[in-house]
Design goal:
This protein has twelve helices and 14 strands. It has 286 residues and is an alpha+beta fold.
Length: 286
């Protein structure tokens, strides 16, 4: 199928984009990488009156060090993240996970801000940002807000983003030598959407402290397994009783059945990916 007719604007400044977005004259849909939006339009699942193309807004394309954080502009592409020395040095969880996001052609076009704003429950990025305790800066014509990743993702394709706001940037705490990270996903084929996946961050291991265990592709949005975190925090990695207790808590999560797996299968796969990701936490930050 072809997309329905739509108007098109390609602003060159962030301010121009926000002015257009704040207008009540026409329904605007921001276009970032377009890797999800364009197929949805072709299938008539999305029918915006106007596409607001953000690709020429240089203000949204940056990766920079800002004290204890790395700031990433919304229009930075996955391929650029993979090539960035700052990302490799300061955000090792991204380095583990980014090669699993779709395929090379998609990573060349897809943007971090586009993924954040879309909030696909099967996407890796929302889970990564929750596991890293990241924050998301959103802007409108009249204001700027900073929202924690924990509070930003609300449900399937649902976020705290208002209709007149754009994702401006993502702020991720830099890793230090004591921090540990793990990532694992199970997919039918590398690069496909995961049947289930998990991203984990910890301030230390032996014992675990400040664990953040976040699943994706099992529910309506990226979901923290807080009870599993509580069962493991303060315990050693070889404590089989603590691990068993943590795994048992996963049965309480709200699993969504999809075309690829039942809720019972998702529950089983969540246990598998969590154990495998925990086994990677011994890898030191470089």
């Amino acid at each position: 199928m072809k997309a329905p007719d739509f108007q098109y604007q390609c602003p060159r400044t962030l301010n121009d984009a926000l002015v257009q977005l704040s207008s009540d004259d026409v329904e605007c849909q921001p276009l970032a990488g377009g890797q999800s939006l364009m197929p949805m339009m072709n299938l008539r699942l999305a029918q915006p009156e106007m596409l607001l193309d953000l690709n020429n807004i240089a203000e949204l394309s940056f990766i920079r060090e800002a004290g204890s954080h790395i700031e990433i502009g919304a229009m930075v592409r996955y391929a650029t993240l993979l090539e960035s020395k700052l990302i490799h040095h300061h955000i090792p969880l991204f380095v583990q996970a980014l090669p699993h996001i779709a395929h090379a052609a998609i990573r060349n076009r897809g943007t971090i801000g586009g993924s954040v704003a879309l909030a696909d429950p099967a996407a890796e990025m929302p889970a990564l940002l929750k596991a890293l305790d990241a924050t998301i800066e959103v802007v409108s014509k009249s204001s700027t807000r900073t929202i924690s990743a924990d509070d930003f993702f609300l449900g399937t394709y649902e976020t705290a983003l208002r209709s007149d706001e754009l994702v401006h940037s993502i702020k991720v705490p830099v890793a230090i030598s004591e921090h540990r990270y793990g990532f694992y996903e199970l997919a039918r084929r590398h690069g496909d959407y995961a049947l289930a996946g998990v991203a984990i961050g910890a301030h230390s291991v032996e014992p675990y402290t400040n664990l953040r265990i976040v699943f994706f592709s099992i529910s309506d949005c990226a979901v923290r397994a807080v009870e599993a975190e509580d069962a493991l925090n303060g315990k050693l990695s070889n404590d089989s009783t603590a691990l068993g207790n943590a795994l048992e808590t996963l049965s309480k999560l709200n699993y969504y059945e999809d075309a690829n797996a039942s809720s019972a299968t998702k529950n089983h796969l969540a246990r598998v990916v969590m154990q495998r990701a925990l086994s990677k936490l011994s890898t030191a930050v470089s």
